[in-house]
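Researcher: Good morning. I'm working through a list of sequences from a screen, and I'd like to move beyond sequence-only analysis. For each chain I'm collecting a predicted structure so we can compare shapes side by side. This is the next one on the list. No need for commentary yet; just the structure.
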Amino acid sequence: NTKPVSQILNMTNGQLIGKNVQLSINVDDSNFSNYIFEYAMVGNIINPVWTKILTGNSKGQFATTFDSSGLTGLYQFRVRAIDNSGNEAVDIRELIFDNQPPEVQIIEPSNNIYTNQLFNLVGTVLDLDLHLQSANWSYKGPDDSQFIPITTINNGNLFQAEFNPISKNGEYIFKLIASDLAQNITEKSIMV
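Model: Good morning. Structure tokens for this chain:
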């Protein structure tokens, strides 16, 4: 008696996941009975609570889109394949879920100020899950069809840039956009 085939196909241990992920498994055996694909939070839990994602009694490859918007932290995913003789094969992956977008705050300048002088753009970005990928300032002037990047200097949680007003009068929108490795994005804007 050999164990059935049990594989999680598209996930690697330690992979960082955002809101939705496509999950794929493969189960196979000539004497196949059933499979269970499930997940549980990893931690100091003696008896983890497993939540079923997919179950079935046919062999093959199966896929589903998994909504992980309520998950944050480390989770185990496992697929168990069982044959009619009671042999069981298990494949397990540990994934890190980050559904918390970075927090962005604009410190200066104040919204709706009027100026024709050089001024600083200062904002803070905090990513509680410590997966911050980037944070950058950009602007859009009265004649611009899209936002234009501004060289941004990172000093810890501070993200700064200088802006020298262009000779064209009018309203300018400034945005500080932050994204983390799980593709969570936050942006704040002001008008000058």
